[in-house]
Amino acid sequence: MNEDEVGKLLAIEEIKKLKARYFRYFDTKQWEDCRQLFTLDAWYVFESSGSRTEFDSRDSFIENAKTRLGDAITVHHGFMPEIEFDDATHAHGIWAMFDYVDIPGQSCQQGFGHYEETYRDEGQGWRIASLRLSRLRNDVLPTRPERLS
Predict the structure, then answer these.
(1) How far apart are CA 126 and CA 74, in angstroms?
(2) Is the pLDDT of residue 8 over 90?
(3) Which run of H or E residues covers position 40?
(4) Which CATH class is domain 3-141?
(5) Side-chain half-sphere of 136: how many Cα atoms within 13 Å?
(6) Predicted TM-score of the model (pTM)
(7) What is the rounded distance in angstroms from the CA atom of residue 71 to the CA atom of residue 28?
(8) Angle, vertex CA 86, rays to CA 80 and CA 88, nearest 5
(9) How would DSSP label each residue in 95-130?
C-alpha cells in the first residue's frame, strides 16, 4: 500500500468519525458542537413522502433542528458508508440510515433511507459541505402524551 492509499484510508476514518459525531450531537442536543461539523457555506435538503425542505446555511439548519427537535427523543444510526474522493480536499459519500424521532404529544416515527453528502477539508479537518437526506420509508408510530423514562 502506498502513501496516497494510506492517506485516503485515514481520511475515510476521519469522515466516519465526523458522521458519528453528527449523529451523537443530534441525539444529545449538542447544537453548538453540531454546528462546528459543517462548513460555513453548507447546505441541506430533506426529502420524505413527497415533501422537500431546504436550508441554505448551517445556522438555519441548526436553528430549525433546535426548534423542532429540542424536546424530542431521537436515535440516529448511519451505516454502510460509501466514501469516494474527488481530490485531496473534497470527498462525497452515501450512508444508509435509520432514525427514530419521538416528539412528545405530537408525533412519533421511524425512517429508513440515505444520506448523500459532500465533505471538504479546509485545513481544520473534514467538515460536511452538503447533506441530502432522502427517506425511502417513514413509519408513523403511536404517539405518547408523555415521555417514558
Answers:
(1) 25
(2) yes
(3) strand 38-48
(4) alpha beta
(5) 8
(6) 0.91
(7) 11
(8) 105
(9) EEEEEEEEETTTEEEEEEEEEEEEEEE-SS-EEEEE
